[in-house]
Specification:
By secondary structure, the protein is an alpha+beta fold. The protein has five helices and 23 strands. The strands form five sheets. Strands 3, 5, 7, 8, 9, 11 and 12 form a seven-stranded mixed sheet that branches. Strands 14-22-21-16-19-18 form a six-stranded mixed sheet. The radius of gyration is 46 Å and the shape is elongated. It starts with a strand and ends with a strand.
Amino acid sequence: MPRLSVAPDRRAAFRRTLAVLAPVLVAAMVAVVPAGAVAHPGPAAVLRAIEPVEPGGDPGGEPSGPAPSGDPAPTATAPPPTEAPPPPTTPPAPAPTSPAAPPASAPADPAPTTAAPATTAPVPPPVVPPVKAPPPPPAQPAGGPLGVRVNTGDVVLPPAYWNADATVAALRVTVTNTGGRAERISLGYTLPPGLSDAGTPGCEPAGGGNHRCAGWDAEPGARFSATIRVRVDGDAWRTMPLAGSVQVTAVAPGVSGAAYDDEGFAVLFPPGPPVPGISLRADEVLFDISGAPATLTVRLGNTGRVDAAGRIDVLLPAGVTVAGSEPGCAPVSADRTRCDLGVLAAGRTGGVRLTLAASAEAQRLAPLSGAVIGRLDPRSGRDRQVQMSFRISAAAADATPPVAAPAPTGSQGVLVAAGERDGDGTSVRGAAIALIAVSGLLVVLALALATRSLRRRSDITAPERPVADR
């Protein structure tokens, strides 16, 4: 049957390409994979495995008989063996140095018993650069740093407050251990004039409106809430705006110093005392994270049957001031601004918008409270007056991130995800197998490309090649 013959120059070019490519791939595998992890075939084996075989002969046209017994010529790209040398007490027999057999009359030389011949001396293992173990993570203090945070609600009074001698309200407090160790946390709070403790369990007065509560133990990340019961006097509204604060302190055995945090709370009164013919409303003031001035909007309504002159007084806490000028508004004192609205017809509503600024300390202590007083003065009849409080909050009060233990670096995370490491710091077995698989894929890809190229060239030159019968 006729067969297609490939030109010798094409086979030689193909062999040269494979001879250049195979040592590079093998050298890369030897350099990357640790010594002794996986046995690698030598370049000769790789060449023999991927070189095409012609019918009726060995790859490359070499003889198929046994190799000569003489010492083979050294190969420049073959890596030295990595097996351990044989024990000195049982050396192998020396290999013959000549292909000719010795004369029958000459006695055979006895095998050496004390040392292995020079021809079987073990070849030193390849020099592989040591794998540098990553430095250990920096030592952290046992248990981590201290940290604590408190968040408060407000004391909000219902409309029924105006019909009672005193009203009991609840102040909600949330405490979080933001440190990295177990802590002993203590809580305290300060009440403004007109407010007193209504029997909060575990707390007792400490003078000057201050109260102290028994401490408790909290694990890292623990978060819990507590309710403080307060009594608000029936005439406390006369001294509005009112605000207090809550403080927490955290300590730990064997650690010097303490962690501390505090936050304010507002006492919010509904509009009143109730008077017919007048309405009042004030919106909450919110300072954003930048601390820029915010706007306060107040509306005064004449719900009576006669016209009346309207007036609004704004009372602000310490650290909060009026930053802009509004037509008809003027300061009366350091914490009080008065705005005249003119005559309000019956059934009409007037209002004012004031620009407020707050110091950094006031924003840190927020929420706070302010107060507005609305007054209507009709031409005939009694004056009508009502007042209420409004909330002042700031984003900067919640901007401090909780304290947390430092996280491992990216390199440490990679090492942990890769798998186990043996005692001498060599690469993991899984990584070595992955590298071998990648190298094998590269060899297969090179073989496929070379075969495709050879077939394409053979197809192009086929009409010009002689066809021989078997």
